[in-house]
């Protein structure tokens, strides 16, 4: 379809995410507004990429809030943008409302999974989300110069790469039980790492290194908080230990917390222990974005 149809497409097509009006807000709890399903990018031949926004109730003249970019896990194959892991699904208030109460605007973001596209597509999507958030920051009341990225599992892997890229402003990165070295997955073409890369890491060594946060550590990296269960059988805790050591080698600030008795996604811990891990991580995030902070 081309030629005389072009003008018609221009009329009937949806407005580009850069210009589209924001959807109406719904209540998200005391002092919280939620905008669900906000398109942030168009990818030809793919579904629109969307995010949910959790915003504080604002008064005229209120200063902009810091940004929290929340990235879900799911082995790069599953997961939903509204989910930060099964241990927090029944929290009331939920984790995003708690982020807002701590002073953040929250963007819970979709990205393409490995049944839709291979690496670096999901990382490109997160970069696109931060670009859109910066573009619309005035409407949203957000200061993208104070941005913390927080991910769990596969989401932790992606936010680590996002923070290390140096091409988008990141004030701090929180990575819960994330893989840092994809080259360790070997030659099995069915692993989550292989499906992300489009082939076993041994057949795509350059891409596997490009997709490994451990190999992308650079001087000037932003501060990192790494939290990992010592009994993790899905992503060995050694991933975070080695990643922390490499960050420290280049002089980056890194805080490593390993959690005894904890499996992946905090399985095996009591509710109070999970609450404590979350609260400590959130306080770390607040410290990074305080006015005049480091």
TrEMBL record:
GO terms for molecular function: hydrolase activity. It comes from the Bacteria. Coiled coil: none annotated. Residues 51-247 form the BD-FAE-like domain. Keywords: Hydrolase. The keyword Nuclease does not apply. Gene3D superfamilies: alpha/beta hydrolase (3.40.50.1820). SUPFAM superfamilies: alpha/beta-Hydrolases. Pfam families: BD-FAE. The keyword Hydrolase applies. PANTHER family: AB HYDROLASE SUPERFAMILY PROTEIN C4A8.06C (PTHR48081), ALPHA_BETA HYDROLASE (PTHR48081:SF13). This is Alpha/beta hydrolase fold domain-containing protein.
């Amino acid at each position: 379809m081309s030629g005389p149809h072009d003008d018609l497409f221009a009329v009937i097509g949806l407005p580009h995410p850069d210009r589209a009006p924001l959807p109406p807000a719904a209540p998200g709890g005391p002092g919280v507004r939620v905008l669900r399903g906000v398109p942030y990018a168009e990818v030809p031949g793919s579904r629109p990429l969307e995010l949910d926004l959790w915003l504080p109730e604002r008064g005229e003249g209120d200063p902009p809030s810091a940004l929290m970019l929340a990235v879900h896990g799911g082995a790069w194959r599953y997961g939903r943008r509204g989910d930060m892991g099964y241990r927090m699904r029944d929290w009331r208030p939920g984790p995003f409302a708690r982020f807002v109460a701590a002073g953040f605007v929250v963007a819970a973001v979709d990205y393409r999974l490995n049944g839709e596209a291979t690496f670096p597509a999901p990382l490109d999507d997160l970069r696109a989300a931060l670009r859109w958030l910066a573009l619309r920051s005035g409407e949203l009341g957000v200061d993208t110069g104070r941005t913390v990225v927080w991910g769990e599992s596969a989401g932790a892997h992606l936010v680590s790469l996002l923070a290390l890229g140096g091409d988008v402003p990141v004030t701090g990165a929180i990575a819960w039980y994330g893989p840092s070295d994809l080259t360790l997955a070997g030659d099995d073409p069915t692993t989550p790492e292989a499906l992300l890369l489009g082939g076993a890491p041994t057949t795509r060594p350059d891409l596997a290194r490009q997709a490994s946060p451990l190999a992308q550590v650079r001087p000037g990296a932003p501060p990192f908080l790494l939290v990992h269960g010592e009994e993790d059988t899905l992503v060995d805790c050694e991933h975070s230990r080695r990643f922390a050591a490499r960050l420290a080698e280049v002089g980056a600030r890194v805080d490593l917390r390993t959690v005894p008795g904890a499996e992946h996604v905090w399985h095996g811990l009591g509710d109070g222990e999970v609450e404590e891990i979350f609260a400590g991580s959130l306080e770390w995030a607040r410290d990074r974005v305080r006015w005049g902070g480091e």
